[in-house]
């Protein structure tokens, strides 16, 4: 397709607007000094070295990854089977689930956080206060809708009932049918849910701060702590965060593309 | 004893009867076609036979065995679904082998059987393609291969050709007949297309409103419909009530007449040996090998099929003709 100069110009402006903040943050992370000039005055790895050697950095990155991976595991193990079961076997429950998954976004964050604190403060026999488990389990309701929408879109494109019945006639049980047929067919929806959940958890601040705060500092908490200090160090942390999200989403996208080719 | 025996089978959804008092027998190696309009209960009957739905009353015996208490896969039944229900994530070969794996087939035995089915259905070049890359006709053949690979005692087919265009459907009907003659499987084929039923069935069961109105060989059902409903559904039959017969042909009768369009002939002069009446051609529909005329006789329109002949030009609209019926071709409807 041939692009005319106007379209090319519009695309350039769009990319510029989208990438300018990232480029600026990146430049600031390497800038010796950047004040009163269009571009930084000199570049250095010094801020990176200072950030990486700060013990809080390693702890924050580690905590964020533990939270992200832990919550991915917990949410995928609970949400994916629930969505499949509701769609395939309990249509009434599926309608209810469709309403429930948007509920965490309809409730203000502070109300949700207080609810979670109350739930996990021992009032109902579960004590998770101050531990990362509170966040891991707390993120499950937030993540449910991020699995629900893309998975439902994939499931709606399948004649699930016919596939299940074809399997029953062959003597295949429900678990095997889900594992060998339905789940591979909705894999793309699941993977999109995984990416969305990962980015949600690793960039989430409100719940992390309200529920666990300084007891389990994440990258977002450290960014909050650094906001009053050096802007260069904050830029370094933001760039590391961008790189982690970029690597994770690229990896998952590559896996999806490879699997799609196989199909 | 018949190979498949269905007795007093009834099924309700809530208070609505889907079908009632179904009784049917199918001999081994026979293709029984269930034909009827949409919503008459034929697909539900098929699902009950497959074990995918439970009847309220009745019994189903296959090869002398009562199958109603058995799970679908224990009934010796395979099914081809209307939308084929091929597993989208598996190739043609994998769809067939997945079915066979459930029967415990492994290794060389499995590979040999899959290859044989692929050969039988002439799917060789598409063996590694996924269903999304197949044409409708190819999908239909894969679904049939997957079903036949299991060597079922009874094959059920739920309108498997309805989604295909007319040309492919006709070709696959011929292929199905050929395959059935070669393998000799016993099958129940559901369709709403009466022409397809007449082509494919060794036996036809006409269903309407949850009941089998008539069952028999295609020529019996077509040639001698037992009721107005069957006559109305099978073919484009002229149904004349007794008073209409009197009005049109001047004949006295207690029962309605069913006149097949191809048994009525058109002539410029009356034949004393036949039942005749004079009318006028009001419409003409070329159907390829035949021409269907609408002839208005005493304010009653009759459908008449006349063989197309290149040497004879079709009759013009408004032509006055005599419609002639051989008394032996009159079918009486007693219901």
What does this structure look like?
The complex is a heterodimer of chains A (263) and B (335). Chain A has helices at residues 5-30, 46-53, 55-89, 91-100, 103-106, 109-119, 132-156, 160-170, 174-185, 187-202, 206-212, 219-226, 231-262, and strands spanning 31-33, 41-43. Chain A is mostly helical. With 335 residues, chain B is an alpha+beta fold. Chain B is globular. The A-B interface holds A 158-159, 162-163, 165-166, 168-172, 180-181, 184-185, 263 and B 50-52, 71-74, 77-79, 81, 83, 85-90, 98-99, 102-103, 130, 132, 150.
Could you give the topology of this structure?
The complex is a heterodimer of chains A (about 260) and B (about 325).
Chain A: H1 5-30, E1 31-33, E2 41-43, H2 46-53, H3 55-89, H4 91-100, H5 103-106, H6 109-119, H7 132-156, H8 160-170, H9 174-185, H10 187-202, H11 206-212, H12 219-226, H13 231-262
Chain B: E1 4-13, E2 16-26, E3 31-35, H1 42-50, E4 57-62, E5 65-66, E6 77-80, H2 92-101, H3 107-120, H4 136-149, E7 154-158, H5 166-183, E8 187-191, H6 194-200, E9 203-208, E10 211-216, H7 218-223, H8 228-233, E11 238-240, H9 242-249, E12 256-259, E13 264-267, E14 275-286, E15 290-297, E16 300-307, E17 320-325, E18 331-333
Parallel strand pairs in B: 3-8, 3-9, 6-7, 7-8
Antiparallel strand pairs in B: 1-2, 1-4, 4-5, 9-10, 11-12, 12-18, 13-17, 14-15, 14-17, 15-16
Helix pairs in contact in B: 2-3, 2-4, 3-4
């Amino acid at each position: 397709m041939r692009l005319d100069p106007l379209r090319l110009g519009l695309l350039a402006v769009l990319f510029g607007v989208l990438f300018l903040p990232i480029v600026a943050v990146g430049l600031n992370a390497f800038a010796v000094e950047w004040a009163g000039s269009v571009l930084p005055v000199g570049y250095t790895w010094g801020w990176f070295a200072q950030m990486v050697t700060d013990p809080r950095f390693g702890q924050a990155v580690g905590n964020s990854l533990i939270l992200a991976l832990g919550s991915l595991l917990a949410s995928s193990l609970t949400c994916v089977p629930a969505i499949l079961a509701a769609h395939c076997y309990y249509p009434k429950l599926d309608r209810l689930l469709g309403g429930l998954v948007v509920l965490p976004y309809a409730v203000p964050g502070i109300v949700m956080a207080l609810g979670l604190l109350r739930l996990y403060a021992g009032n109902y026999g579960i004590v998770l206060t101050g531990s990362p488990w509170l966040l891991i389990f707390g993120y499950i309701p937030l993540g449910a809708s991020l699995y629900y929408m893309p998975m439902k879109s994939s499931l709606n494109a399948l004649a699930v009932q016919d596939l299940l019945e074809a399997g029953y006639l062959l003597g295949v049980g429900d678990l095997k049918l889900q594992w060998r047929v339905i789940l591979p067919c909705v894999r793309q929806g699941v993977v999109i849910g995984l990416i969305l959940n990962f980015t949600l958890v690793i960039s989430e601040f409100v719940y992390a701060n309200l529920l666990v705060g300084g007891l389990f500092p994440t990258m977002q908490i450290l960014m909050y702590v650094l906001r009053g200090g050096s802007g260069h160090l904050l830029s370094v942390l933001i760039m590391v965060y961008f790189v982690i999200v970029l690597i994770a989403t690229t990896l998952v996208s590559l896996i999806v593309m490879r699997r799609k080719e196989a199909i | 004893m018949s190979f498949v025996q269905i007795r007093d089978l009834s099924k309700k959804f809530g208070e609505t009867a889907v079908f009632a008092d179904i009784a049917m027998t199918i001999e081994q190696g026979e293709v029984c076609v269930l034909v009827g309009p949409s919503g008459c209960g034929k697909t539900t009957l098929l699902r009950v036979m497959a074990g995918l739905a439970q009847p309220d009353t009745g019994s189903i015996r296959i090869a002398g065995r009562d199958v109603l208490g058995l799970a679908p896969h224990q009934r010796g039944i395979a099914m081809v679904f209307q939308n084929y229900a091929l597993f989208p994530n598996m190739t043609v070969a994998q769809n067939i082998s997945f079915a066979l794996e459930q029967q415990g087939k492994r290794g060389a035995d499995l590979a040999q059987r899959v290859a044989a089915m692929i050969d039988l259905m002439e799917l060789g070049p598409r063996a590694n393609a996924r269903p999304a890359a197949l044409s409708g006709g190819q999908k239909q053949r894969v679904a049939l291969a997957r079903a036949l690979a299991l060597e079922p005692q009874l094959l059920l087919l739920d309108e498997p050709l309805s989604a295909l265009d007319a040309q492919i459907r006709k070709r696959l009907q011929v292929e199905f007949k050929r395959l059935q003659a070669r393998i000799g499987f016993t099958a129940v084929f559901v369709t709403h297309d009466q022409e397809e039923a007449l082509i494919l069935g060794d036996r036809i069961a006409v269903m309407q409103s949850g009941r089998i109105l008539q069952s028999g060989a295609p020529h019996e059902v077509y040639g001698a419909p037992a009721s107005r409903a069957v006559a109305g559904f099978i073919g484009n039959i002229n149904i004349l009530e007794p008073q209409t017969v009197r009005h049109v042909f001047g004949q006295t009768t207690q029962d309605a007449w069913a006149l097949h369009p191809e048994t009525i002939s058109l002539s410029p002069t009356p034949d004393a040996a036949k039942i005749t009446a004079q009318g006028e051609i009001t419409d003409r529909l070329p159907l390829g090998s035949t021409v269907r005329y609408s002839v208005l006789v005493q304010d009653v329109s009759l459908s008449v099929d006349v063989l197309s002949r290149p040497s004879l030009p079709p009759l013009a609209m408004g032509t006055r003709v005599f419609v002639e019926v051989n008394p032996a071709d009159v079918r009486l409807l007693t219901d």
